[in-house]
Amino acid sequence: MARWRPGTRERLQEAALELFATRGFEQTTATEIAEAAGVTERTFYRHFSDKREVLFDGQEVLLEAFLGGVRRCPADASPVDLVAGALQGVASFFSDERRPWSRARQAVIDANPALQERELSKLATIGGLLTAALRDRGIPDPAATLAAGTAVMVFGATFGRWLDPAESRPFDQIAHALLDELGALVTRPAPLTRP
Amino acid sequence: MARWRPGTRERLQEAALELFATRGFEQTTATEIAEAAGVTERTFYRHFSDKREVLFDGQEVLLEAFLGGVRRCPADASPVDLVAGALQGVASFFSDERRPWSRARQAVIDANPALQERELSKLATIGGLLTAALRDRGIPDPAATLAAGTAVMVFGATFGRWLDPAESRPFDQIAHALLDELGALVTRPAPLTRP
DNA sequence: TCCTCCGATGTCAGTGACTGACGTCGACTG
DNA sequence: CAGTCGACGTCAGTCACTGACATCGGAGGA
Fold first, then answer.
1. pLDDT tens readout for residues A44-60
2. What pLDDT sits at residue A2?
3. Which residue of B has its CA nearest to A181?
4. Homologous superfamily (CATH) for B8-54
5. What is the 3-state secondary structure (H, E, C) of A29-69?
6. How many angstroms separate the Cα of B161 from the Cα of each of A34, A128, B99?
7. Domain A58-186, what architecture?
8. Where does B48-142 have alpha helices with state H?
9. Nucleotides of D under 7 A from a protein CB
10. In a 3-state reduction of DSSP, which class is residue A187?
11. Which of A140, A191, B60, B95 has a CA that sits 20 to 30 A from residue A61's CA?
């Protein structure tokens, strides 16, 4: 017989999402989350470095998806191909079954600036690591920085669309459409070739 | 004779930057900043909503520079032109005289994750408002979102380079070079359609 | 001139996020 | 069976931030 019920971390995460969704982030204390999970506040902070972090676990997996997508590209892939590959890699993460959960979580985040800050921070971290990965593949700066930034930006736009109830396409289709659109946008329609 | 010395806000900002630079952000309490500026902690929080915010004042002006750059574009400007215009508008902000100050401030930010979060948050806010401005100019979604995101991303990359001691070009030149590079990057060199 | 209202600040008490130190006790290991 | 360890509890403490109320020079009006 174990001294404590296992799965503390998961119970804390569930309790937190539930409480944040009903009462709001600010109106929920760390102590309340801990009690709802059957532990003490101190234990909460042993699992999560701060109150916001309880909503942002598993970003390493998201990062791995990005990097895996890059790794799966052929050695001579161009930067755009790598961006597309990264987006493709991450698409497996956002299957249709996850949409309800993602929406619930995102609603909580959208309702609180502090949580939005943390979300941006996580994305920026991924962007930084992606930049490093691209450099490792021989992409020089500033191309690596720009490509990684593009991947993260398109990911953000894709994610937002994917959550939209009016949007029915799967994640990877949205991502590719947006990447194509960006390509069309950013290519200056030179006046000479466009009479 | 005034009851209090004027310029409290500015004194607080200077004291904060100074203390953050020497002791570090976490090791500096709001009370210490206030005392260094000759006021109480409560007054600090009357001027700045939180401890980080003291470093991020004047973002409205940066936003205005972005929007001003957009406004100065001709009515039929393409999205890339608008992005370029926004970057051009913001370039006036980063004259060479500001580089030492910007570097000092950035060193403080780079040394602390919480400050980096706030910086990202400010940039995201600007991105959102820029998106709205582009929509107002008739750019539909998702082009508006992507273009604004591009502007902010290229701005970030430009700012980083501009701060680099090895970089001697002025802000706007770096920005345009990076935007061009992005255009080259993101345009898939499709052999079939590009004979 | 005097009064009155206002705005920037001080004072104080309180809440809640987070941390360090230490104790507890089942489980595992030799 | 003794010792170690990992996951948790307990407690006290610091600091970010907030609300309520007091203070008093100064600007404007009677």
1. 999 999 999 999 998 99
2. 81
3. B143
4. Homeodomain-like (1.10.10.60)
5. CHHHHHHHCCCCHHHHHHHCCCCHHHHCCCHHHHHHHHHHH
6. 45, 15, 11
7. Orthogonal Bundle (1.10)
8. 59-71, 79-91, 99-110, 113-136
9. 6-12, 15-20, 24-26
10. coil
11. A140
A8 touches strand D (CB under 7 A): yes
Q: Which residue has the tokens 């940039």?
A: B123
Give the pLDDT of chain B (195 residues) as one tens digit per residue.
678 999 999 999 999 999 999 999 999 999 999 999 999 999 999 999 999 999 999 899 999 999 999 999 999 999 999 999 999 999 999 999 999 999 999 999 999 999 999 999 999 999 999 999 999 999 999 999 999 999 999 999 999 999 999 999 999 999 999 999 999 999 865 444 433
* Dist CA A52 CA A115 (whole Å): 6
B8-54 and B58-185: identical CATH topology = no
Both tokens assigned to B92: 């006036």
Nearest Cβ partner for A142 among B117, B145, B157? B157
Q: Determine whether the distance from the CB of B47 to the nearest atom of strand C is below 7 Å.
A: yes
Q: Where are the domains of chain A?
A: 8-54, 58-186
A145 in B contact zone (CB under 8 Å): yes
Residues whose CB falls within 8 Å of the CB of residue B135, separated by 6 or more in sequence, listed in order: B141, B144
User: Would the pTM count as exceeding 0.90?
Assistant: yes
Distance CA B179, CA B163 (A): 18
| Contact indicator for B142, A161 with CB cutoff of 8 Å | yes
- Give the amino acid at A89: G
Q: What CATH code is assigned to B58-185?
A: 1.10.357.10
Record the tokens describing residue B69, joined without a space: 């750059």
Which residues on chain A are in Cβ contact (under 8 Å) with B128? none
For residue A181, the SS3 value is: helix
> CA separation (Å) from A17 to A8, A12, A101, A138?
14, 9, 10, 41
